[in-house]
From TrEMBL:
Pfam families: AhpC-TSA. Residues 39-177 form the Thioredoxin domain. CDD domains: TlpA_like_family. GO terms for molecular function: antioxidant activity; oxidoreductase activity. Keywords: Disulfide bond, Signal. InterPro entries: AhpC/TSA, Thioredoxin-like_sf, Thioredoxin_CS, Thioredoxin_domain, Thioredoxin_ResA/DsbE_sf. This is Redoxin domain-containing protein. It comes from Peribacillus castrilensis.
């Protein structure tokens, strides 16, 4: 009986130590990453340079002074496809101080046909998985669609990890200064 009590106390102690160490390691982890994955709200958005679907080069820093809705998506993703019509509507009604960048993470699929079939006019940067340091890895994208809302100073103000409606987009952009 005494052996069982000692064994139970020892096991409980080991579990407690493991939990405390795990929590300590988590708190010492990357301050720019949050618990849901991705970059932390309040962090500076990493700059990137990508070619767009129409062959132009685009950098996030080109849009400093504007609000940016930075979306990560793919043509094979049903929730991504679902939010595209609302993203297009939002683009049409947004003012000059808002930019929509929809980074396609799988440009090997036929992005051009998808864009043409759906009447998309917003900017589509292409992020290749075969690149040395894909942008979606720098933004810690774990699932798509994921959208970052970046303020005029380049600070991440919100992140949505799911498909959005037009109202979601409006609310997130309007909540930024």
């Amino acid at each position: 009986m005494l052996k069982k009590i000692i064994a139970s106390v020892a096991l409980l102690s080991l579990i407690t130590v493991a939990i405390v160490q795990a929590m300590d390691n988590e708190s010492k982890g990357n301050d720019e990453k949050d618990a849901l994955g991705g970059l932390k709200i309040g962090a500076k958005a990493p700059n990137f340079s990508l070619k767009t679907l129409d062959g132009k080069q685009v950098e996030l820093s080109d849009y400093e002074g504007k609000k940016v809705m930075l979306n990560f998506w793919a043509t094979w993703c049903p929730p991504c496809k679902k939010e595209m019509p609302d993203m297009e509507k939002y683009t049409q009604q947004a003012g000059d101080d808002v930019v929509v960048l929809a980074v396609n993470i799988d440009p090997e699929n036929d992005v051009q046909a998808f864009v043409e079939d759906n009447g998309i006019t917003f900017t589509i940067p292409l992020d290749s998985q075969s690149a040395k340091n894909p942008v979606n890895e720098r933004y810690k994208i774990l699932s798509i669609p994921t959208t970052y809302f970046i303020d005029k100073k380049g600070i991440i103000r919100n992140k949505v990890i799911s498909a959005m409606t037009l109202k979601d987009m409006e609310r997130n952009i309007n909540s930024m200064q």
